[in-house]
Specification:
The chain has about 450 residues and is an alpha/beta fold. It has 3 domains: about 130 residues, 3-Layer(aba) Sandwich (Rossmann fold), CATH 3.40.50; about 240 residues, pyruvate-formate lyase- activating enzyme, CATH 3.80.30.20; about 60 residues, Nucleic acid-binding proteins (OB fold (Dihydrolipoamide Acetyltransferase, E2P)), CATH 2.40.50. Helix content is about 35%, strand content about 20%. It has 13 helices and 19 strands. It is globular, with a radius of gyration of 24 Å. The structure holds 5'-deoxyadenosine and iron/sulfur cluster. 5'-deoxyadenosine binds next to strand 13. Iron/sulfur cluster binds next to helix 5.
Length: about 450
């Protein structure tokens, strides 16, 4: 008699992720909490049993893009139903948080709408959605800690990993939706962060990027139960054997305290690359943005960071055309960029987010003028990025090799400054941190040679 055991085939989960690294991290955590229900990741939305659209509210026309993507997913869902199957469709992330009711009203075929604070409840929502005909909505800001509910057995992330230590923001920059969509600042306790970091390292991660909307405002409970600081957390993480590299993003200049600046000089494992958004170089605009720092404050912080860690490279975010920004204000932004010198930057045209103070402010800047300013700014930023990459040529720098390169016989990794680095070399370099000599600096990457190759060529 053939008594083969019956196994339930895995259910297919397709996750579409838009937006920042926090969303990438959250998507991985959602996959983790659904794994015990039998969901395994699938690259294809068409034959998925569940599709999660993890949305981002920062970008222009965010809500419209969600509805357009939902229109496409609806067709896939219908096709699957016609074939006798079922597809659970969930919308997560910041648009779900901000527009939950509107999504269910305009897209009733969506089964689940969940905000960023409620991912741990996803298995229950899926179970309810599987039974119920009506949709399930959960976009509360619960007081309990969503992180406490996430399973320990998270999937390995590989050599470079992300770890969310802080969520939300109390800064209320006039242009930004994050304080409304992600809620108030909340920091995970140090013990929970260290435990997750140790697990990631045990799973093979060698570089961890600490994430938070306002990561340097982290003030989780320290070892003694009292609120700690990011500088102290970084020092504690640096004690973990086999954690070679530590990074953190995104920071606010106001929270760059003395201890954190000192940590950049004292903790060798803290990488010499910092993303520190400045947004504008004009004090008038910075005040209108409610940034609570001046251009001089920012430059002073940069100077102190570089005094602590001379090889520190900076990246930033800049907005052009914020309400009230004149040509002179924009010129001040260009001047600040020239003075600070950025290795990398993200630049945006201001775009109104409904419900934020800047959206209703006088002095909205003409679209064509914003375009012109953005082009001028980006030309300068490109110049700085290329100059920085070229300045690396001739240096011998440690590269964390993470995988095969683009071409056969190549391996690829990351420089301390987050550049992708390509080297002709053996696959056994993957998983090592190896010094290599930079021989070419391109717009977005570096080419290097191994020391032996260099000798062979000499
Ligand atoms: N318009 C343009 N850029 C914005 N950002 C946030 N909100 C807006 C907006 N309304 C940019 C900021 C922030 C980055 C993540 O996105 O520069 O630092
Ligand atoms: Fe938004 Fe960052 Fe300002 Fe917070 S600090 S309101 S996340 S731009």
């Amino acid at each position: 008699m053939n008594d083969a055991p019956t196994t339930t085939p895995p259910k297919r989960l397709h996750v579409i992720t838009w937006g920042c690294q926090m969303n990438v991290y959250d998507s991985a955590r959602m996959a983790d909490v659904l794994a015990p229900l039998g969901y395994a990741p699938s690259p294809d939305a068409g034959d998925a049993d569940m599709v999660i659209l993890n949305t981002c509210h920062i970008r222009d026309r965010a809500t419209e893009k969600v509805f357009s993507e939902l229109g496409r997913l609806r067709l896939l869902k219908l096709a699957r139903e016609q074939a006798g199957g079922r597809m659970i469709l969930a919308v997560a992330g910041c648009v779900a948080q901000a527009e939950g009711e509107q999504i269910l009203a305009r897209a009733p075929f969506v089964d689940i709408v969940l905000g960023p604070q409620t991912y741990h409840g996803l298995p229950e929502m899926v179970a309810r959605a599987s039974r119920a005909a009506g949709a399930v909505i959960d976009t509360e800001f619960p007081t309990e800690d969503k992180f406490d509910h996430l399973p320990d057995a998270a999937a390995p992330q590989g050599l470079t990993a992300f770890l969310t230590i802080q969520e939300g923001c109390d800064k209320f920059c006039a242009f930004c939706v994050v304080p409304y969509t992600r809620g108030a600042e909340h920091s995970r306790p140090q013990a929970a962060v260290l435990a997750e970091a140790r697990r990631l390292v045990a799973q093979g991660s060698r570089e961890i990027t600490l994430l938070g909307q306002n990561v340097n405002a982290w003030h989780g409970a320290g070892a003694d139960g009292a609120p700690s600081s990011l500088g102290r957390l970084v020092r504690a993480l640096a004690e973990i054997p086999d954690l070679w590299r530590i990074r953190y993003m995104t920071s606010h200049p106001r929270d760059m305290d003395d201890d954190l600046i000192a940590a950049h000089g004292e903790v060798a494992r803290l990488m010499p690359f910092l993303h520190l958004p400045v947004q504008s170089g004009s004090d008038r605009v910075l005040a209108a943005m409610n940034r609570r720092h001046t251009a001089a404050d920012y430059l002073r912080i940069v100077e102190r960071l570089r005094a602590a860690r001379p090889d520190l490279a900076l990246s930033t975010d800049v907005i052009v055309g914020h309400p009230g920004e004149s040509r002179a204000d924009f010129a001040a932004t260009l001047a600040l960029v020239r003075q600070a010198g950025f290795a990398q930057a993200f630049s945006f045209k201001y775009s109104a987010r409904p419900g934020t103070p800047a959206a209703a402010a006088p002095g909205q800047v003409d679209e064509a003028e914003k375009d012109a300013r953005l082009q001028e700014l980006q030309a300068l930023l490109r110049e700085q990025q290329t100059a920085f990459n070229r300045s690396c040529v001739g240096l011998t720098v440690p590269v964390l090799f993470t995988g095969p390169g683009r071409h056969p016989g190549q391996v690829a990794g990351r420089s301390p400054w987050l550049h992708p680095v390509h080297v002709t070399g053996p696959a056994m370099l993957i998983g090592t941190e190896t010094p290599v000599k930079i021989v070419a600096g391109h717009t977005n990457s570096l080419t290097a040679t191994l020391p032996q190759q260099e000798r062979a060529c000499a």
